[in-house]
Each structure stands twice: as structure tokens, then as C-alpha cells.
Specification:
The chain is of the alpha/beta class and about 325 residues long. It is about 25% helix and about 15% strand. The protein is globular, with a radius of gyration of 21 Å.
Length: about 325
């Protein structure tokens, strides 16, 4: 095969990562363009052999490298968690839904939660709100792949009606710590713990991302408790620190689900704002992207009629 020196395709992942970290933004853009040129050449060569590679070099798979971010939906302001090889890159027909999960494809701001609340009360609720960022230009050049909700839309969620006794796990950003603590009070929860996810690269180094003052390499999940302990609860399990690789956009570490299921075995679990890459066996997952096939029907109708999705905002202050 021909040599593609401009992109240095033959170097190891570790060597490439070390070299990229030393580049400034203009040099990194040049490097990425060289990769795309090399990939385009390879694709054309493969096509000449009558083989379809199943990918397009002009699709911006390398955007995470250009944007230099490792955050996610519940990361800090400006974070957007993207990773090469994310499940988001797969067509739904290629992605297997866990056989015992319960996805509910709906806009959480307009969904009728009453039948679900009447059917069961959940032992554990976890949510990763698409927090509305505080500034008019929140991403500082980093693309967010999701709509945001106002604080009031989050306050209006009927969480108190979905849980009589149990735990509430909420992923927060720095700017929403106080808001979330106030929300716990409003919903009659007591803060009992917090979990820190330290994001790692594939080489077990900290995966740093944008931050206003300091670079960020972690996410925090606040844990509240309401009423009595759920049946079968186990105490002093797991750890409040998770070291795990960064994942797809808005995708939390697998360890958080394992920790919850170890804390409350055989419980009734609900995740709000879930996406297709959050689906797990024995969890009810509610969100407008759980299928990976587009918006819920009611959102598509609203978008066509009003050019907007109920509750969706971008960039303005609450």
C-alpha cells in the first residue's frame, strides 16, 4: 500500500496522541485535513477493488479531535462528549437493543407521566438533564448534539409523583450545583452522597476537556434520598469515585448502572433523558432519542407546525 506521510497513518495511538497534544489549533486542523485526504485516497483505492468500505472520509468523524473536548451532556459548560467509535455512529439496524429494557420514546416536557406513576413507584431514578448553558455563546466553538431545557422545565418534571421511597441520582454541571440542591429540597429529598466520574482515555490518562478557569476531567452525580430505604437495599457498596473511559455523547459509565443495581438489587429503575446508548436491561428509559431513529411523533409535528420543539432552547439565560 502507498505511504501517506502527511497523515502519519502508521504511528501508534499513543504516539499520535502525544504529538497531537503538542499542536496548536491551526496545526491540529492541518493534521486532521491531512488525515481526511489520506482516508479519501484509501477509500478510492478500495472502491477501485470493488469493495465498499461503509464510511465516508468527508463525514466529520474527526470533529472531536478538532474540537478538543471530552465532555458530555452533563459535563461542564461548553462540553459535548463525543468519541470515535461511539454507538451514535451506528445505524439503528446494526445496534441491538437490550432484550429486557423498556424504552419510552417521548419528549419529557410533554409526556403524560401519570399512567407510569400509577403503574409503579421507582426505587431509583437517575437523570442527566440537558442543562441550559448560561451564556449566549455557551460552547466556545464546541458543538452540542442535543437541545437544552430551562431550569423551570426541569423543576416541572413530576419526579415526586414517580417515587415514594428511594434514591435520586442527578448528574450536574458546576453552574447547577446550587440549583440541584434547591431542587432536592423542593422535591423533598435529602442529599446523602455524591459520585465523581474521573474520565480516562484509552491509555488510562485523564481525559481533559474545556473549562472556564480549569480544564475539566470529571463529572459529578449528586445522590438524594426520599422517604424510607428501598426493599433489599445494601449499604457500603462500590465506591463514590469511578475511573472509566469517556464514552459517547451523554453516555455515562457502565459502572454507574452496576453501582445502582448493587445498592438496590432487583429494584425498579428509571432513567430520564436517556438516549439509545443508555438503554439497560430492567430499566425504564424515557427520552426523545431512545430509538436513534428521530424525534417522537409529537415533536416532529410541533417542529413542522411551529418550527420549534416544546421545551427546547439554546444559549439564552433562564
Amino acid at each position: 500500500m502507498a505511504s501517506y506521510a502527511p497523515a502519519q497513518l502508521s504511528e501508534s495511538d499513543e504516539a499520535a496522541e502525544q504529538r497531537w497534544e503538542s499542536l496548536d489549533e491551526a496545526e491540529l486542523n492541518t493534521e486532521i485535513d491531512a488525515y481526511k485526504t489520506s482516508l479519501r485516497t484509501i477509500r478510492n483505492s478500495v472502491h477501485g477493488l470493488g469493495i465498499s468500505p461503509g464510511w465516508e472520509p468527508d463525514h466529520d468523524h474527526l470533529a472531536p479531535l478538532r474540537e478538543g473536548n471530552d465532555g458530555n451532556g452533563a459535563g461542564e459548560e461548553g462540553d459535548a462528549d463525543l468519541r470515535l467509535g461511539s454507538i451514535d455512529d451506528l445505524h439503528p439496524s446494526e445496534w441491538q437493543v437490550p432484550p429486557h429494557c423498556i424504552p419510552i420514546h417521548a419528549n419529557v416536557t410533554t409526556y403524560d407521566w401519570r399512567p407510569l406513576a400509577q403503574a409503579t413507584q421507582f426505587d431509583v431514578i437517575m437523570m442527566d438533564p440537558p442543562w441550559q448553558l448560561a451564556t449566549a455563546n455557551p460552547t466556545r466553538g464546541v458543538a452540542l448534539g442535543y437541545s437544552q431545557l430551562t431550569d423551570q422545565d426541569i423543576v416541572n418534571l413530576p419526579v415526586p409523583q414517580l417515587q415514594t421511597n428511594g434514591f435520586l441520582f442527578v448528574w450536574v454541571i458546576n453552574a447547577k450545583y446550587k440549583f440541584t440542591l434547591d431542587l432536592f429540597d423542593k422535591w423533598d429529598y435529602k442529599l446523602v452522597d455524591e459520585i465523581v466520574w474521573v474520565k480516562m482515555t484509552v491509555n488510562r490518562r485523564m481525559a481533559k476537556s474545556h473549562g472556564y478557569y480549569l480544564q475539566h476531567a470529571k463529572e459529578v452525580c449528586l445522590v438524594g434520598k426520599k422517604g424510607l430505604d428501598p426493599p433489599g437495599i445494601r449499604r457500603c457498596v462500590g465506591s463514590d469515585v469511578i475511573y472509566s473511559e469517556r464514552r459517547g455523547q451523554s453516555q455515562k459509565p457502565e459502572e454507574i448502572y452496576q453501582l445502582i443495581e448493587e445498592l438496590v438489587p432487583n429494584g425498579k429503575y428509571l432513567e430520564i433523558f436517556g438516549r439509545k446508548n443508555n438503554l439497560h436491561n430492567y430499566w425504564v428509559t424515557v427520552g426523545n432519542e431512545v430509538t436513534g431513529t428521530g424525534l417522537p411523533t409529537e415533536d416532529e409535528a410541533a417542529l413542522k407546525a411551529n418550527q420549534s420543539i416544546p421545551g427546547a432552547v439554546y444559549g439564552a439565560r433562564n
